[in-house]
């Protein structure tokens, strides 16, 4: 073998050896990049996995919506446009009448989610004086301002499938027991409560977490169903 041939052989050997080193370096670089990305993403994913899932308790359900989750727009799609009145926000609440009854529906929305303003309170009340004066609810419309009728009938407005205004106390307690809810005695009625989790975009640190269903009795007759939800406070 001549000197030139030996030099060419060494050149090809070094060239092949350099290719192997380059390939190994590339694989090491890719591996390091993958580890870096994994280390960056994993804590975020772990944090997301720790976040509670949205959980709305059964007691929040009425009239096709979920108090503490559904938006006022969704409620109005169920009931029709309500009369706008002051609530937690200016013009944030709505009022309706229920056909064939003296009932009044009052709903309010305060916090916001990706679905819009969230209904955080809903009452169905048997008005003592049917008409435009509504002494039994939080916000009275001005005299002479008629309330629109809700699209849903009184039967569709039953809570938990059977509790509606006018039933007696024994039936109320029987139906609550059938649902395995434990009512707490109040001065003028009963209350059941449940916990859940409903995040808000307007206040992400404090989601809705506590629900109440309160039943007001007058004599032996149910005259008000009041669904309410409260935000979580950790301080």
Can you give keywords for this protein?
single chain, 235 residues, alpha+beta, 2 domains, two-stranded antiparallel sheet, 3 helices, 10 strands
Protein described:
- The protein has an eight-stranded antiparallel beta sheet, covered by helices on one side. A two-stranded antiparallel ribbon has the order 1-2.
- It has three helices and ten strands.
- It is 28% helix and 29% strand.
- With 235 residues, the protein is of the alpha+beta class.
- Strand 9 and strand 10 form a beta hairpin.
- The radius of gyration is 32 Å and the shape is globular.
Briefly characterize the structure:
This protein has 235 residues and is an alpha+beta fold. It contains 3 helices and 10 strands.
Chart the SSEs and their pairings:
Blueprint: H1 3-50, E1 61-62, E2 65-66, H2 72-79, E3 83-85, E4 93-97, E5 103-113, E6 116-126, H3 169-178, E7 184-186, E8 189-198, E9 208-218, E10 221-231
Antiparallel strand pairs: 1-2, 3-4, 4-5, 5-6, 6-10, 7-8, 8-9, 9-10
Over all CA atoms, what is the radius of gyration?
32 Å
Structural class: alpha+beta
Portion in beta strands? 25-35%
Give the SSE string. Answer: HEEHEEEEHEEEE
Low-confidence stretches: 10-14, 39-48, 130-140
Major sheet characteristics: 8 strands, antiparallel
Helix tally? 3
| Average pLDDT figure | 79
Q: CA-to-CA gap between the ends?
A: 87 Å
The residue fraction in helices comes out at: 25-40%
Count up the domains.
Answer: 2
Overall form: globular
């Amino acid at each position: 073998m001549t000197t030139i041939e030996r030099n060419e052989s060494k050149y090809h050997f070094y060239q092949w050896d350099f290719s192997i080193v380059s390939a190994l370096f590339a694989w090491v670089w890719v591996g390091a990049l993958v580890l870096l990305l994994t280390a960056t993403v994993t804590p975020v994913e772990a944090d997301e996995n720790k976040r509670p899932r949205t959980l709305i308790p059964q007691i929040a359900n009425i009239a096709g919506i979920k108090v503490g989750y559904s938006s006022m727009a969704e409620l109005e799609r169920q009931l029709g446009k309500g009369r706008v009145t002051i609530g937690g926000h200016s013009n944030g609440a709505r009022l309706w009448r229920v056909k064939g009854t003296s009932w009044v529906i009052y709903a309010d929305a305060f916090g916001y989610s990706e679905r819009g303003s969230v209904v955080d309170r809903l009452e169905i009340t048997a008005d003592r004086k049917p008409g435009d004066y509504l002494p039994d609810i939080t916000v009275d419309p001005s005299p002479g301002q008629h309330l629109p009728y809700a699209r849903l009938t009184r039967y569709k407005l039953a809570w938990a499938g059977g509790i509606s205004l006018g039933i007696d106390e024994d039936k109320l307690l029987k139906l609550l027991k059938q649902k395995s809810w434990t009512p707490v005695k109040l001065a003028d009625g009963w209350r059941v409560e449940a916990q859940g989790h409903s995040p808000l975009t307007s206040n992400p640190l404090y989601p809705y977490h506590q629900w109440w269903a309160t039943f007001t009795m007058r004599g032996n007759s149910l005259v008000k169903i009041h669904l309410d939800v409260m935000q979580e406070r950790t301080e």
